[in-house]
């Protein structure tokens, strides 16, 4: 039904009016043409479909045939495998073929080797062809050859070190080529220098274009080596210019001439080297500084002075022969400790001159140049350390040997300062000289070893000596010590001010060491060393080797318990300062006891004086009357004066006052108990006692302003003891005072306040007033 509708629509579209029938023939022809075209397309499609069907059938047949053939082949293989499995023929065949296959493999490998060698020779010849005209062009084939050599060496390891001869040959060719390339350019540069009669040129002159061009060509050849090298390398053009000086150096310092003697290295060799560099400094900077800056300023080595500064490059070239000289000198020095010590000092001075005068960094812009000293110490440090330790200990023993070394050095500091012994000051001078020996060393572990092995060892020995002196003093002065026997000489040494002097020597020496170490702890060198030690202790997980072969515990025990902790305030000398401070405190305590013992002996007769109630002279009303000092007090005053005078010279003001305060407090107690509380006093006896105490106080005040304050309780007690029996109207009499004190505590306190007495209690006041004979009842 639908085709009829489409035909009807078509006719309606084409025959819309009567005039359209006039073109009916044309319309029919057009329709017929379209029909024939469609029929033709239909026939072609039908034919193509038939062809496709036939082709598919053919392919299917072929595939079936191939499957059938494969199955037959598989079956044939299975049969043959069964036969082979049952037969020994394959193993025999494999064995027969094994040798030819190996030979074939060797031939193939040899062919590849030959090809590789041909490539090596080609690259070598190509590099040679560009020299000396174009060093940059020669670097191309040389770089490829070097990369090949590096790759072969890298691959050799995983291959069980195979092709050792080939790898060695390629490396040899590479090194030889590089040597030839440098030699070619070297000869060209050398010819240029020879034409200009180098080094007989004016140091203030300018070089010509040919010289500069040759200089640049050598740099171009070497730039890859410079950029790839992990350490500093010498610059080829500078090497060529330096060779004449190296020959001169060898002539003077590495020959059989007198100037070559090892002992003259500090007087002649080092100054010659520095003078040479200084002479050509301006010439090198003015002429070749811009060239080096242009070549390296945009590279990874632009921060290294050995490449940017021609003077530093010149030093690098010259240092090679200096190393040779130093090595030869060291071989002699290690057999002579004295020479080794002086050589190391001269070598450090030379290194410092190179760094400071020419800003030489040795190719390490971050850490700076380690110097020839570091190179020497990497081999000979232990030898040098033992030599310095031996010298230091010998010097220490020499300091301690003379008897005068143990005397007090009164001239070391002024008045009011504690005086050390000569030995103590000389020991600190010795330690300072040791510091000067190693403070310029660059390596931290070397510095720490010097500190611990030498300086702290000497300090420990001296500390043991001071401790021995105190122990000997205790054994001589104590009852237990005397029981084991004491010589007359030992006892005589403590007579007079001998005991005080012995203790002052220990106190002053320990005080000097403590003050010196405290001062050193604030010096930059030791502060930096402490910070480095703390940083290493906190970061180092291996406590068995914190530095220089020493464990964490060893370092901590010798320096400070704060090592490796977060505590603030630690210093390198904490343990040593603590030990010496203990000796100082111990000596100070003994000193106060020794003064008190002197007092007990000196006051023995005075304490036993029985005449306080029977004084011949009675006090008068004359306000200017002063009774004579008791004769038994003459000796105590002499001893007091002697001790005060001696200690005022030997001790610092603070220590002097501290020691005497303790001793006078004991004297105050002795006078209170053995005189005041042990005797009865008439008014004249009380006045005599007050006069005696005034004499004691006056003597003390001459040496210690306000020092008699330690006797204040005795002074106030004697004020009570000297109250008159009868007082003027409004005054305080003995009877009135007695009535008030014995009434009750409240009245006693009012009485004490009225007399401005603050150190006595009501009980003390009662005891004192009872000592008057008038109150005996």
TrEMBL record:
GO biological process entries: endoplasmic reticulum to Golgi vesicle-mediated transport; regulation of ER to Golgi vesicle-mediated transport; retrograde vesicle-mediated transport, Golgi to endoplasmic reticulum
Q: Which residues form a coiled coil?
A: 28-62
Q: Does the keyword Acyltransferase apply?
A: no
Q: Which Gene3D superfamilies match?
A: Dsl1p vesicle tethering complex, Tip20p subunit, domain D
**Keyword Coiled coil carried by entry:** yes
Keyword set for this entry?
Coiled coil
Q: Which InterPro entries has this protein been placed in?
A: EXOC6PINT-1/Sec15/Tip20_C_dom2 (IPR042044), RINT1_Tip20 (IPR007528)
> What name goes with this protein?
TIP-1 family-domain-containing protein
Organism taxonomic ancestry: Eukaryota, Fungi, Dikarya, Ascomycota, Pezizomycotina
